[in-house]
């Protein structure tokens, strides 16, 4: 199994939680400094910029660290921690596979002063690709966390554990987040080069430093680039996660993993006879 830091793909859950808790609205405007200080840490953006004003959706589309941290601060550490658990992180999904890993999530009582500077942007927590797909599934399907299945049925009989899932966010919040995630493919978004004619796509890019096993600190040369995407955005039938371990040359999820998502989806949508809508 593989555990990894999700990086910016986690920002969708920070935003979904804040929307559900009514701490932000989609059009809440944030005046974002070039960096933000949280306790003893100063966190900047992946690409330097000056001051900028973005709404909640713009924070996701442009993947602003400063903005996502400010959204997280509105939730507060206690609620943020509860939401991380609610989305299924830190525990096995219950998939029908042996030896499932549970990842590693910092419990609230072990948060430091700077934890809310890295966790809302997907740093300092380890997840599995399956947990990410499962959590994004709740955004795609209208708000329910389902147990993932590899085998759906045997001889027409549903496999054990097929369930109706647990509602974790409202259908409205899920739809709002999907709408925001379409901005990732618009001009200025982190995956603006990816498009499939006839289909509106929703998704999120992520890039995270790997931890060097020898030193236990972040590697400055090894990364995980990822992308989670769905289509059609308004009523998704297909959810795809691409995780690229140690990309060479370009390291960003937008330039490494998003194009792979585009190619897979461009093939799979017509193959599965999913109509544009």
Task: Walk me through what this model shows.
By secondary structure, the protein is an alpha+beta fold. It has helices at residues 11-20, 56-61, 65-75, 77-86, 115-118, 129-141, 171-182, 253-271, and strands at 29-32, 35-38, 41-44, 52-55, 144-145, 153-154, 157-158, 166-167, 202-211, 218-231, 238-245. A 3-stranded antiparallel sheet has the order 9-10-11, sandwiched between helices. Strands 1-4 form a two-stranded antiparallel sheet. A two-stranded antiparallel ribbon has the order 2-3. A hairpin with a 6-residue loop joins strand 9 (202-211) and strand 10. The radius of gyration is 18 Å and the shape is globular. 42% of the residues are buried. The model has no long low-confidence stretch (mean pLDDT 94).
Summarize the model shown.
The protein has 277 residues and is an alpha+beta fold.
Helix content: 25-40%
**String of helices and strands:** HEEEEHHHHHEEEEHEEEH
Count of alpha and pi helical runs: 8
Helix/sheet category: alpha+beta
Oligomer: single chain
Whole-number mean pLDDT: 94
Relative strand content:
15-25%
Report the count of strand segments. 11
List keywords for this structure.
alpha+beta, 277 residues, 11 strands, three-stranded antiparallel sheet, two-stranded antiparallel sheet
SSE inventory with pairings:
Layout: H1 11-20, E1 29-32, E2 35-38, E3 41-44, E4 52-55, H2 56-61, H3 65-75, H4 77-86, H5 115-118, H6 129-141, E5 144-145, E6 153-154, E7 157-158, E8 166-167, H7 171-182, E9 202-211, E10 218-231, E11 238-245, H8 253-271
Antiparallel strand pairs: 1-4, 2-3, 5-8, 6-7, 9-10, 10-11
């Amino acid at each position: 199994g593989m555990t990894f830091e999700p990086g910016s793909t986690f920002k969708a859950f920070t935003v979904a939680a804040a929307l559900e808790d009514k701490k932000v609205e989609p059009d809440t405007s944030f005046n974002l400094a070039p960096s933000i200080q949280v306790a003893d840490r100063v966190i900047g953006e992946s690409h330097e910029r000056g001051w900028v004003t973005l709404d909640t959706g713009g924070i996701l589309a442009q993947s602003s660290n400063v903005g996502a941290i400010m959204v997280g601060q509105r939730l507060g550490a206690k609620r943020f921690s509860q939401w991380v658990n609610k989305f299924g992180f830190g525990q096995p999904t219950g998939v029908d596979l042996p030896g499932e890993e549970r990842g590693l999530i910092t419990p609230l009582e072990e948060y430091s002063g700077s934890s809310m500077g890295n966790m809302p942007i997907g740093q300092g927590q380890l997840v599995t690709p399956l947990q990410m797909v499962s959590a994004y599934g709740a955004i795609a399907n209208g708000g329910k966390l389902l147990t993932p299945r590899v085998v759906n049925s045997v001889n027409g009989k549903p496999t054990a554990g097929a369930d109706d899932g647990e509602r974790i966010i409202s259908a409205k919040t899920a739809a709002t987040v999907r709408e925001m995630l379409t901005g990732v493919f618009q001009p200025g978004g982190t995956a603006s080069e990816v498009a499939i004619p006839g289909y509106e796509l929703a998704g999120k890019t992520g890039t995270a430093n790997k931890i060097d096993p020898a030193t236990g600190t972040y590697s400055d040369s090894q990364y995980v680039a990822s992308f989670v995407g769905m289509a059609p955005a308004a009523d998704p039938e297909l959810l795809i996660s691409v995780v690229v371990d140690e990309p060479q040359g370009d390291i960003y999820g937008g330039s490494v993993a998003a194009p792979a998502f585009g190619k897979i989806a461009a093939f799979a949508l017509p193959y599965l006879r999913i109509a544009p809508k």
